[in-house]
Design goal:
Distance between the termini: 33 Å
CATH topology: Aminopeptidase
Order of helices and strands: EEEEHEHH
CATH architecture: 3-Layer(aba) Sandwich
Helix content: 25-40%
Shape: globular
Radius of gyration: 13 Å
CATH superfamily: Gcn5-related N-acetyltransferase (GNAT)
Strand content: 35-45%
Number of strands: 5
Oligomer: single chain
Structural class: alpha+beta
């Protein structure tokens, strides 16, 4: 499975696409130059139970690390991943 990334202006997403259909997506907005606000995560029924939502968040974290960004997980799913992985993802977490 390949997670792709697209960004247009201050909005972007990490997503999984198959046959021109988006099967999973995590969207974000940039607040200023260094804060990524994850605002939505959605995974199709075809990929449920395959840890794809976590993989999207993890890819976002790696992107944030490479680009010296902080992440504010506004999306409830992303927030739950950050809560569970505090030790692993805490370096990019921005509170409030």
């Amino acid at each position: 499975m390949i997670i792709q990334h697209k960004q247009e202006g201050s909005k972007g997403s990490f997503y999984v696409e198959e046959n021109n259909t988006t099967l999973a997506e995590m969207t974000y907005s940039m607040a200023g130059n260094n804060v990524m606000i994850i605002d939505h995560t959605e995974v199709s029924d075809a990929l449920r139970g395959k840890n794809v939502g976590y993989q999207l968040v993890h890819t976002g974290v790696e992107y944030a690390r490479m680009n010296h960004l902080k992440i504010f997980p506004l999306c409830p799913f992303a927030k739950s991943v950050f809560d569970k992985k505090k030790d692993e993802f805490g370096d990019v977490l921005r509170s409030n």
